[in-house]
User: What shape does this take?
Amino acid sequence: MAASAADVRSILSIPAPSLAAGPSQQKKQPTTQTRKPEGISRELYSLIGPSAPSLVTLSKPRLKQKPNLGGGSKVKWECRAFKNPGRQDSLELRHWVRASTAEDAEYPFAKYNVPSNVFTYSQDEYTRFLEDKEWTKEETDYLFSVARDYDVRWFVVHDRYNYIGGVPRSIDDLKDRYYSVCRKLVRNRPWAGDETSKAQTIASYLFDKEREITRKKYIVSLENRTPEQIAEEEALFIEVKRLEQNERRFKKERDELLRTIAGIESGLPDIVEDEGLSNLAIDTKKKKNRGSVMDADSPAIPAMPVSAPIVKRPQTAKNAAFDAANCIVRTDPPTTVPVTKAAHQPAHLRSYKLPVPKAAVQPKITAALAELGISHSRLVMPTRDNIMQLESLLEATTSLVEIKRVVDKVEYDIRVLKTRLGMRESQGVEGRPGEAMDVDEGHEGDVVGEDGRAQSVLSTRSARSRKQTRRSMSISSVDTSGTATTRAGTKRQKRS
Amino acid sequence: MASDRVRVRGVSIFRPIIYGNTATALTQKERDALPSPDHTHRWTVAVRSAASGGNADQVGGADDLSYFIKRVTFKLHDTYPNPSRNVDKPPFEVTETGWGEFDIHIRITFVPESGEKAVVVYHHLKLHAWTASGEPEIPPIDVAIKAGPVHSWQYDEIVFHDPYQNFLNILTNHPVTHLPKAKRKPVPFHLANPGSLDASKGGVPEFTSLMEKEEADRLEEARQAIIVEQERWRTVLIERERELENLQKQLAATPQ
Assistant: This one.
């Protein structure tokens, strides 16, 4: 470059270095100056120096940093045996791992083996909630077993679904049945969490078959359009847009005209934009972008909102605070009940409204709750929340009692069948019945003895029936006498 | 005004109250002074607001309830002279002496503006100390004197549905003293929560909002236990049903 150091100095009005300065001082100079910013050539920088405002945009294409591959230090790898806890069998495989990983570290991919949670239901639940005239119990059982086998992957399930003696089912039929059963089970079983999580779970099992079928039909018809039809549709769409625009302009002009001439509004109705059409426009555009690939099997969008909207009168925070301070609870007045004097709910004490279990199961519920240290006939603090809480507790207990009753019945049936089988076999072979009884006894032991505490919750009956097996097969008499005594016992505590 | 006699629909308003009694065993000297020396206790049965007020020796009673309660009638045992005691002004309580426990009818009549009928509650007069077992037990009199007063109180809420406008105004003009959030005094003992026996000892109890929370927790815990139990029994049931089915098949397969 032609510019010498002296030129630069004169331009930037830097005093010339004293001639006496040795070469060592000369060398120091670049270090005292600020570094040259990137993006300016060295020559230009030496001309303008750091004091001049840089007019050039300092944009040097920034390259990605070289990835640090850790090439510096050596990594030791080892071939180790490992077990996958996700597997049912204890198959042992070997893989390469860094020597630094812990010896007993869990297989990192095991967590991806998430078993699908397929519901099971009892015969009793089936008869109470799940009856459907289109489906038999056997076929429903089969559907659930296939769903379990294939992890509720519907295409596979549908592919493998082959119920002998059944009508052919579409994938939507299968889904519809499966999800409706799940929904009914969630709804009818007592829920461990709160109401919103229950509603969410139910919502996650929503499946609207009709909607799904319509959706698929629509997609098929969309896909089956000929190029001419598509062209026609687009032409029509453009035509509509044009008409709309024309009309809008016409209206505007007319409005203006009337305002200038007569000073009034034209009174022409506003042109309502057709939502459907504009949506369609976006839709078609999108589809073009996506290359008309549509996932026909994405799960149906739930038709219902996740949580049912709670209709509440608008309530400000101030109101809520006022209500809380004054112990006011607002409910929407029921519109169905006629407003008469007789319909008025008189003043009462909160504890009057304690929930009462059904008379038939009351002794058992009382006994079960007593074991947990709860008396359902009285509360320390009968507030609104606590009464609701007690209500859900009673509900859960009722269904527990119900399940236990059915278990007892099934166990009784099993015993009857076993003796019948034993008797038949004894007709064939001498000396078999004793053996059959032994089997029966052992089995009974493991039913009842599974969990001492659980057994003691409400079941005085199975304890009794254990003795019963030894004596005879008439269980029912014990059962009734048992309830009779407990009922007499609870009569005393009628007072709330 | 006519507009006052309009019911405010969709509103229910409640007032927390407590009812119950406090009983103190009498010393021999005090008993001698009584007209009937066989009486062993002096007791007070009362209806009060739930939150405790300035009086440290009294359970509840922070608010004066006479703005919505016109009269409280305590119907004592027939052996008392004039067993039906009407109390028309606060404090709504009756103090008597006696030797036995019995049920007291408490009839709460509301002010005429409410347009509501009276409500009746029962309270079992409690003279002898609470026991862990719940079985009544009569301790010797000197032990009872040493142990101090016995408290038996029930919390409750009086609920008014769709109150008349003027009654609602009366109620909202008398704000409620809410239960304290922290425990400062012993817990009032209640048979539904036998576990509170130890916490109930040592002085005049006080109702707190912690008690509500504690009870809600107990109920929730019980519910969880029931649900766990239920899950377990459901699996048992499903197993048994499967077994039954197998047996049925087996039975069908074996020749008659």
